[in-house]
Amino acid sequence: MGADGGSQEQVEIPGILHLDMDAFFASVEIRDDPSLRGLPVVVGGAGARGVVAAASYPARTRGIRSAMPMATARRLAPDLLIVPPRGDHYRMISAQVMAILNSVVADVEQLSIDEAFLDVRGARRLFGEPEQIAALLRRRIRDELGLPSSVGGSVSRAVAKIASAHAKPDGQLIVPAADTAEFLAPLPVSAVSGIGPKAVAALEKIGVHRIGEIRDIPPNALARVLGPRAPEIRRLAEGCDRTGLGRQVRERSLGTERTWDEDLTDGDEVRRRITMMADDVARQLRQEGTVARTVVLKLRSPDGTTITRSSTLDQPTASGERLREHVVALWERERHRLRRIRLAGVRVTHLESSGTAPVQHELASRSTLWRDLETAMDQATSRFGAASLSRGSTLGPASDGAQRTEDPDGR
Ligand SMILES: [Mg+2]
To answer: Which ranges carry the UmuC domain (predicted)?
Structure first.
């Protein structure tokens, strides 16, 4: 027998599953009030600026989609039933869903409130092939929680996610390794998570509408359109992507650090400076198309005493607002220890590609607002330079001149 083991191990198992609840918030409301069944139900704000957070399938057949303004939804379905969102309730049920997944599969990576990736290759001896495990999970969620879900399976997370979208509602689709490229070829490029409307338009300009057509584009042309993600997306189109769980967790960090010639003795001034650093780090994240899960504050006094404190966020982010909140909270906890500050730094770790951490619109409306605002600020900054813009509480001499640093060792 060769060193490569028996033939059993060489069969490629499409064991990366993507489980996604169907119209999650709407399904919960219909479960809790069966008189809503079969009706065009949406969850969301009913006010003038309300947005659809989730739409039942009867609402979807009328053209209603999540993230659509409620006024538009009302126009499409005058008999629309609007249920106000119950975030805490959905979070509790989400925890129940995840508990079911974790009771069957050891490797679960929760992606958002209602979806997760699972690596079931280690669960086969106990529970069978990926098809059987997907059916088991969906049946348990149905029996124990009364909710519909869909599962996609593949040799890669990207394809599994596309497959689960295909299987909806209340279905499952496991794509064998050898069929991957063929499965993807006829699909629109927008089916790939992370290819947004801008990239779609750019691809269409070079004549690419379907995933299969990506294979025919010369690498340079594709890189011009898709940037650093081009090789990864080509591998996907060729059916060669094999990325499993936690792929985007890169062991590197990104941040900014500054030493001052004169010690800072005013706590409010320190707070102002680290706030600006947090904004700068968030800008770097957005420029890279990454989000971070952990933020680290480093402080050093003139005698060399160094304090490093970190905070893990419940959702990965590229929002300056979120990073500021955490950095300031860390500072408020530690400020009594250091009367004089010589060096301060803000750093983020556990970076992920922002395309892989979707947050449902409804619960994120506030952060969406911030993201829009911050994107606008990024554009203004790149046009006018970093000193041209800062938020209210950081107004003041913008002469900080913090050094951008990248630390591949993640220290
Ligand atoms: Mg869902």
So the answer is: 16-196
**216 has binding-site annotation:** no
Q: Which domains does the chain have, with CATH numbers?
A: 14-121+134-173 (3.30.70.270), 182-237 (1.10.150.20), 253-407 (3.30.1490.100)
Which residue among the candidates 9, 12, 109, 115 is catalytic per the annotation? Answer: 115
Distance spanning both ends of the chain, measured CA to CA: 44
Residue 309 and residue 305: Cα distance in Å, rounded? 13
Cα of 391 vs centre of ligand 1, distance in Å, is 35
Distance 115 CA to ligand 1 centre (A): 6
115 in active site: yes
C-beta separation of 70 from 50 below 8 A:
yes
Distance between CA atoms of residues 23 and 165, nearest Å: 12
Q: Convert the pLDDT of each residue in 166-175 to its tens digit.
A: 999 999 999 9
263 assigned to a ligand binding site? no
Span from the CA of 22 to the centroid of ligand 1 (angstroms): 5
Sign of CA dihedral 75, 77, 78, 80: negative
In which element (H, E) is residue 239 found? none
* Separation of alpha carbons 190 and 199, rounded Å: 9
CA 84 to chain centre: 24
Is residue 262 pLDDT above 90, yes or no? no
What's this model's pTM, rounded to 2 decimal places?
Answer: 0.61
* Residue 12 DSSP class: P
Q: Characterize the bridge pairing of strands 149-154 and 16-21.
A: antiparallel
